[in-house]
């Protein structure tokens, strides 16, 4: 008995891992898994495919009126990539939940928010890969940044913020949902409606009059118009897009914290 107590007293105390170290380690695991599984390649190729699918059949009709369709189309391609990144986040979070990864992580001496932060680091990396892929095809077909350096940085940051904010929400949904695959499939419907009924593919004036107010003011149109203004250097009233970006980030942050607390109390 005495020997046991002495051994317990001399045993090295369990040390907690810092938030940065834990997040970096978990993010590295996610990135390695994405590279091995091919998701990193898909992230970079998907905007190229999306761009060509819309550009090839539509650009001649658009350019007859004197427009540059590559310049017009690029914002919605990045936004669509952000939506697909968020849907992927749902599936990844659900796969972790089904495999018992979150229970194993909760038994480790790491901050409870570290797992989701690790997943979000991969989301940001995935968005950067998508931006690279999109810019490659966009620049080859005529897209250019005509604004200042600050506007170009704002363009790129807004794309990443959009994908990150949506992914925070869908990651939380995938973590707690009984079937993350069902949630991911369900998300395909609204994203299709929002993309087709937006100013991302054609101007609002091309839609019937009764739906134009919705087309102009729905979030994808707000983001697409802001990105288009930033890429061309046109005047931009940032109020609406900032409100949407901040609102989505706050909602995603609240969802992530709520899920982390729920897991900590299990």
Automatic annotation (TrEMBL):
Keywords: Antibiotic resistance, Membrane, Transmembrane, Transmembrane helix. It is found in: Membrane. It is a multi-pass membrane protein. Coiled coil: none annotated. GO terms for molecular function: ABC-type transporter activity. GO terms for cellular component: ATP-binding cassette (ABC) transporter complex. This is ABC-2 type transport system permease protein.
């Amino acid at each position: 008995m005495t020997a046991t107590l002495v051994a317990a007293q001399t045993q090295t105390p369990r040390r907690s891992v810092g938030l940065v170290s834990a997040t970096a380690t978990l993010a590295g695991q996610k990135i390695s898994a994405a590279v091995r599984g091919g998701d990193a390649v898909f992230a970079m190729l998907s905007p190229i495919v999306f761009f060509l699918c819309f550009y090839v059949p539509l650009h001649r009709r658009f350019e007859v009126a004197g427009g540059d369709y590559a310049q017009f189309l690029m914002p919605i391609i990045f936004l669509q990539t952000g939506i697909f990144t968020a849907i992927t986040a749902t599936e990844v979070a659900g796969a972790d939940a089904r495999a018992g990864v979150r229970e194993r992580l909760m038994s480790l001496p790491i901050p409870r928010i570290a797992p989701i932060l690790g997943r979000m680091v991969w989301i940001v990396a995935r968005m950067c890969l998508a931006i690279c892929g999109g810019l490659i095809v966009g620049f080859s077909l005529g897209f250019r940044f005509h604004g200042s350096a600050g506007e170009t940085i704002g363009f790129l940051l807004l794309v990443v913020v959009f994908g990150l904010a949506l992914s925070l929400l869908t990651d939380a949904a995938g973590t707690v949902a009984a079937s993350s695959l069902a949630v991911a499939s369900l998300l395909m419907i609204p994203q299709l409606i929002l993309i087709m009924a937006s100013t991302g593919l054609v101007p609002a004036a091309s839609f019937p009059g009764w739906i134009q107010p919705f087309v102009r003011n729905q979030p994808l149109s707000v983001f697409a118009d802001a990105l288009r203004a930033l890429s061309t250097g046109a005047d931009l009233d940032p109020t609406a897009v900032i409100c949407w970006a901040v609102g989505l980030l706050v909602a995603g942050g609240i969802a992530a914290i709520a899920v982390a607390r729920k897991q900590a109390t299990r």
